[in-house]
Design a protein that fits this description.
mainly alpha, 81% helix
């Protein structure tokens, strides 16, 4: 088999994951720049990865994509309102109470979802559930324009890299390595961004 044939076969077999890879990378990069156009791109990535994760029996991750669709639509609307009001996306500081509440909600969600995923035969039920739960917290913080979302995304995505390597989702593991880098860029950019007054 020639190299060209091997590449062609790989692309044909994994086109959905590669499409998700590209749209996710572009969408998150646009998010780091606080550009409203990020949301429809992220929405496409959410839908593509819903299928990829379902096929890999990572049911918590597949379920997460459904929640991501909801958060993406909410974030799009919330950011759009802010842009209409002040002409740009302004970040909002997260209170200590917000940190504690978010992290506690992530822990509770991890336990409950892990229990459910174990019963439906999901691959890596507890790890996947914890990552899913904390990803929901990070998504909520991102939609609400809290800079803290990037800290949580860095932590979660580092663990996701190992999970995807274990599940032989190599393009997705590489994607999450790049997402860690983008999260660092987002953190730097958002810390310099104008802050909302309320």
């Amino acid at each position: 088999m020639t190299l060209l044939m091997a590449i062609t076969n790989y692309l044909a077999a994994n086109w959905l994951e590669i499409a998700g890879f590209v749209t996710t990378l572009v969408g998150i990069w646009l998010t780091t720049r606080r550009l409203l156009i990020c949301w429809p791109v992220v929405l496409a990535a959410d839908l593509l990865y819903l299928i990829v994760f379902y096929r890999a029996r990572l049911f918590s991750d597949a379920l997460l994509q459904i929640f991501f669709v909801v958060f993406t639509l909410y974030g799009w609307w919330h950011w759009w309102r802010g842009v209409r009001a002040v002409g740009e996306v302004r970040v909002v500081p997260l209170t200590v109470r917000g940190w504690v509440t978010g992290l506690a909600a992530g822990a509770v969600g991890a336990v409950l979802l892990g229990w459910l995923m174990e019963r439906v035969g999901a691959a890596l039920p507890h790890l996947d559930a914890a990552l899913t739960s904390y990803s929901l917290v990070a998504s909520w913080w991102q939609a609400r324009k809290h800079t803290a979302n990037w800290w949580l995304w860095i932590a979660v995505n580092l663990v996701y890299i190992g999970e995807y390597l274990y599940k032989d989702l190599l393009p997705t593991a590489v994607l999450y390595l790049l997402l860690v880098i983008l999260a660092v860029m987002g953190l730097v950019d958002w810390r310099r961004a104008p802050r909302a007054t309320s």
